[in-house]
Amino acid sequence: MKILFRLLALALLPLLAACAGTPPRTDGGDRPVPLLLISIDGYRHDYLDRGFSPVLASLARDGVRATSMQPSFPSLTFPNHYTLVTGLRPDHHGIVHNTMEDPQLGHFDLKDRKAVSDGRWWDEATPLWVSADRHGVKTATMFWPGTEADIHGMHPDHWRPYDGKVTADQRVDQVLAWLDLPPAQRPGFLTLYFDAVDHAGHDAGPDSPQVNQALRDTDEALGRLVAGLKQRGLFDRINFIVVSDHGMATVPPGHVVLLDDLLPLDRVDLVTAGVLAGINPKPGTDFAAIEARMEQPHPHMQCWDKSRVPARLHYGHNPRVPQLLCLADVGWTLSTRGYIGEHGAMRGKRTRGEHGYDNADPRMGALFVAHGPAFERGVVHPAFPNVDVYPLMAHLLHIVPERNDGDYRQVEDMLVPAAR
Ligand code: AMP
Ligand code: ZN
Ligand code: ZN
Fold this sequence. Notes:
Radius of gyration: 22 Å
CATH superfamily of the largest domain: Alkaline Phosphatase, subunit A
Oligomer: single chain
Structural class: alpha/beta
Number of domains: 2
Helix content: 25-40%
Bound molecules: adenosine monophosphate, zinc ion
Strand content: 15-25%
CATH topology of the largest domain: Alkaline Phosphatase, subunit A
Largest sheet: 8 strands, mixed
CATH architecture of the largest domain: 3-Layer(aba) Sandwich
Distance between the termini: 28 Å
Shape: globular
Number of strands: 20
């Protein structure tokens, strides 16, 4: 009897759910509701309360917002974008910095097209678009680090090579055009990427009118997206997750540590400087002595041999992480006289704001807003680490997640019961 009752309840569940206004899990056919992952690079979590993002604020009001989302260390663009789509911390997915060296592959820099589109840098992990494709879900990416590379033999079904000159409106229109494709080609997982807020944050600092203007401009583009979706009757039939990769901290003028004064630069290989410097020995260098000196307390930075990085940063095991790491205190940067001489004008302009710092610092806190039929309405979720976004997305797409560092159970309560 009990079993019969259960079966009856199960059979009636969809009907009851429909009566209660429970949103659809599929697009009407047997495909899951499309999922659109939007990144606003450098959007610090508290920017949302400035009043310059009305569209985003209304998505948050009618959906879920996290008080903050903790980026993974280092709080840089490429490492965190890849974390969001793999659920792995940078040490585990291999994109350990925007600039890095690999014993076999040589040098990687986010501005180096050839490296960025070489799958060998990326294939320590399997990004969501590859898994989606394997599960028969079509994918389309309007920019996202990694999408230009052939990873495990696969690109997204639709993608564009990164070009910062493509306007925010053009990016939105491309996403809408992909959603207009005939059902067989229509993507079930899409990404959309905006960079104006990050640029303004670097150029003028997080508290500048320039950042506020970039917030307005980006929000207008989101408004165009929402209007386009409403026009198509899609707005309530798509799940959005709007995130950022990291926040932004003010760097006052002159807050530069000159590594020349601390290190014999001719005897080491400085892989990166900026917020997180990476240093490897040149052959024949007594590196232990250099490390011992660098690891002494310093007023504006802290250095560790990669084996001694604090465990909470989850960093240092990957062979691509340089032997010695120096992390600037928040609001400081690390540079050299040669670099400032060469790039002085440009660098001077780009150091009013920085990120890459300790991911526990609240100024590095990122944005998380989600909206759509799968999400609760009007929920403010406590802060959580960005590795949890991946298992959440895999769940929404009905995809078996790859091994990852995230935990779906920590974010499950963002979903309406029928979508859990
Ligand atoms: P950073 O502030 O150094 O972490 O770098 C962020 C910058 O990387 C952004 O402002 C973009 O201009 C750039 N960027 C974002 N995505 C890509 C990409 N797929 N390929 C190359 N550059 C990118
Ligand atoms: Zn970024
Ligand atoms: Zn940046």
